[in-house]
């Protein structure tokens, strides 16, 4: 049974009334700041959730957390509680009355770590068994027991190929636990070097796999993570990797399977492709697991197994936080629910003061990818156009950005502190650290006096107070100093402190944010589990690619007939009207511009490269039009 202690004391007057600085006002402010705000502490895990910095901006003698729960949000809390119940009992919640956007399916990420799940085959126990099976297969690879059957080599490089949730979650965990310098370590416990590819970026791909790249393809294994296999970026990266294997004669007899692993859904097109090409392994995730909440599935498990992370503890951490944030029944339990309290504060404050950005600052390099992870979780879940039940257009969203403190403080904190009031700041840090170092000047003997003292010197030291500072203590100073500055500048913030950076606490951390998003979506009446806007972008990108292919073919055709071609985007649309119907002029100009910049780059425009010696571009301001004019010089 979790023993949660919480304290609530509100100031007698609002913060804004004492914002004008004077010695008396400063004293009053200091007194206000030292009064306990709302602090929730879980002794079992040392998790601490502090919103005193938020209350100073939102509370008044008549508005407290209790009154918000009892009066303003009583109905909303019931709606949120029911939505969580529907999700955890396998009901169809990923739906909306807008037929073109509705996916009409259940959502199962909570079930994957639920101790007592009513959905068959989806529980914490089932997930732990899946993890055990994955570890057994992956350990055979990482131990060197299983080698590439084609060349007998061990797999020294493992590359994880995914995008969105199939990339951000595994990357977050590997960076958090293994650190940002893992691949450079001399001793990696026998593990392969781990790399992540996501973007469809030829430059970074070339750095890894090009002729001068850092990886030997014959010792590499590509782990492809995609529910359907149809995601353009992931599929393109896989096809390029496999093309290099074939072109360089590394994959014998066209057998690419020894260099690939798949994580997908059963019977998907990607599953069929993997089976046909005899991939090393195919691991399965559920159709009901959304990408941005898939880190608790095989999507997170397989990278964790290759990195030797304790994923069982991650799942237990998620399950533990889910228990904490499932408390909706009584006022006392609601006050012990950090996800509910956070959602209410974010929602209520923004209703009073307008929409605000959420800045997430993780005070550890281990949390380097945390803000990126939350960007997708919040913005893809809450950025919706229509109400899920009425279909009425009512745009919603929550902008998230951030990074690692203290570095990001030197990037945008000036505006947050002194500029427009458009932000809420969330601090995340760890109570315990595994190492610490002195930051005193090693060349200053006087300064170093306080660094190493004999026991007999401690009494004298305590009287004179020679200063001392470590890296960890300096970091704490920046955290609390920044909080204090925000407080004095009238900017709201909240703080989450986790005991240490391990898989259990990372599980708690992610589960808390997932629940906040679910509750906010319920408050606002939107479907948090679809992503029609992402689909819009994919469709437009496919259109752009089709126009690009057509335009290259038409330009090549004209060059073959006329020994060259000269024209602008508007000219191209006129000349190739049939093929370019519906193409915006800026689409066409972008394609022509790309041809100009990359016609001679290998594999960029292979057909064009065969027929031209050069492509020129000039800026034209004639006949009331301003546009680029392109000239393709024929080699024929």
UniProtKB/TrEMBL annotation:
Keyword Secreted: no
Sequence similarity: Belongs to the GPI family.
Organism: Naegleria lovaniensis (Amoeba)
A GO term, aspect molecular function: monosaccharide binding
Pathway noted in the entry: Carbohydrate degradation; glycolysis; D-glyceraldehyde 3-phosphate and glycerone phosphate from D-glucose: step 2/4
Cellular component, GO, one term: cytosol
Keyword rRNA-binding attributed: no
Leading EC class: isomerase
Record-linked Gene3D superfamilies: Glucose-6-phosphate isomerase like protein, domain 1
Catalytic reactions of this protein: alpha-D-glucose 6-phosphate = beta-D-fructose 6-phosphate
Enzyme Commission numbers on file: 5.3.1.9
InterPro entries, sorted: G6P_Isomerase, SIS_dom_sf, SIS_PGI_1, SIS_PGI_2
PROSITE patterns: P_GLUCOSE_ISOMERASE_3 (PS51463)
Name used for this protein in its record: Glucose-6-phosphate isomerase
Keyword vocabulary terms for this entry: Gluconeogenesis, Glycolysis, Isomerase
GO biological process, one term: glucose 6-phosphate metabolic process
Pfam families according to UniProt: PGI
Top-level taxon: Eukaryota
């Amino acid at each position: 049974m979790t023993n949660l202690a919480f304290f609530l004391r509100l100031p007698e007057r609002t913060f804004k009334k004492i914002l004008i600085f004077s010695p008396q006002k400063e004293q009053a402010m200091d007194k206000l700041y030292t009064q306990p705000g709302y602090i929730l502490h879980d002794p079992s895990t040392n998790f601490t959730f502090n919103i005193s910095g938020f209350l100073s901006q939102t509370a008044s003698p008549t508005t407290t957390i209790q009154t918000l729960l009892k009066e303003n949000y009583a109905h909303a809390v019931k709606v949120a509680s029911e939505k969580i119940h529907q999700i955890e009992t396998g009901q169809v919640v990923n739906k909306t009355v807008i037929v073109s956007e509705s996916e009409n399916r259940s959502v199962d990420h909570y079930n994957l770590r639920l101790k007592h799940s009513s959905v068959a085959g989806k529980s914490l126990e089932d997930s732990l068994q899946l993890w055990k099976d994955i570890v057994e297969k992956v350990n055979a690879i990482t131990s060197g027991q299983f080698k590439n059957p084609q060349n007998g080599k061990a797999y020294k490089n493992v590359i994880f190929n995914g995008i969105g949730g199939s990339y951000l979650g595994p990357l977050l965990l590997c960076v958090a636990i293994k650190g940002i310098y893992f691949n450079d370590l001399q001793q990696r416990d026998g593990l392969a070097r781990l790399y992540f590819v996501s973007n469809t970026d030829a430059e970074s791909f070339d750095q890894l796999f090009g002729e001068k790249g850092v990886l030997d393809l014959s010792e590499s294994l590509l782990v492809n993570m995609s529910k359907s296999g149809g995601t353009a970026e992931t599929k393109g990266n896989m096809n390029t990797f496999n093309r290099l294997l074939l072109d360089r004669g590394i994959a014998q007899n066209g057998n690419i399977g020894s260099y690939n692993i798949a994580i997908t859904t059963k019977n998907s097109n990607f599953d069929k492709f993997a089976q046909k090409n005899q991939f090393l392994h195919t691991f399965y995730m559920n159709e009901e697991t959304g990408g941005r909440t898939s880190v608790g599935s095989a999507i997170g498990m397989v990278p964790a197994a290759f990195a030797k992370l304790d994923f069982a503890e991650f799942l237990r951490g998620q399950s533990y936080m889910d228990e904490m944030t499932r408390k909706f029944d009584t006022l006392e339990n609601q006050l012990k629910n950090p996800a509910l309290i956070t959602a209410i504060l974010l929602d209520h404050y923004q209703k009073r003061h307008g929409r605000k950005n959420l800045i997430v600052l993780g005070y550890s390099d281990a949390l380097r990818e945390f803000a990126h992870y939350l960007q997708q979780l919040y913005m893809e879940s809450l950025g919706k156009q229509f109400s899920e039940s009425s279909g009425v257009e009512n745009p919603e969203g929550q902008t998230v950005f951030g990074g690692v403190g203290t570095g990001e403080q030197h990037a945008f904190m000036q505006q947050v502190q002194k500029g427009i009031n458009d932000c809420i700041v969330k601090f995340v840090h760890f109570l315990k650290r595994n190492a610490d170092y002195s930051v005193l000047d090693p060349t200053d003997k006087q300064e170093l006096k306080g660094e190493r003292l004999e026991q007999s010197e401690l009494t004298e030291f305590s009287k004179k107070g020679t200063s001392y500072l470590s890296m960890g203590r300096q970091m704490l100073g920046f955290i609390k100093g920044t909080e204090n500055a925000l407080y004095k500048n009238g900017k709201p913030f909240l703080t989450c402190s986790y005991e240490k950076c391990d898989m259990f606490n990372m599980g708690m951390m992610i589960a808390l944010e997932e629940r906040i998003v679910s509750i906010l979506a319920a408050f606002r009446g939107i479907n948090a589990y679809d992503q029609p806007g992402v689909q819009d972008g994919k469709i437009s990108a496919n259109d752009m690619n089709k126009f690009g292919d057509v335009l290259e073919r038409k330009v090549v055709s004209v060059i073959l007939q006329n020994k060259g071609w000269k024209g602008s985007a508007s000219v191209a649309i006129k000349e190739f009207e049939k093929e370019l119907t519906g193409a915006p002029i800026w689409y066409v100009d972008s394609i022509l511009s790309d041809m100009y910049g990359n016609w001679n780059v290998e594999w960029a425009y292979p057909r064009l490269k065969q027929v031209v010696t050069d492509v020129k571009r000039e800026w034209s301001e004639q006949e009331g039009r301003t546009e680029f004019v392109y000239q393709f010089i024929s080699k024929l």
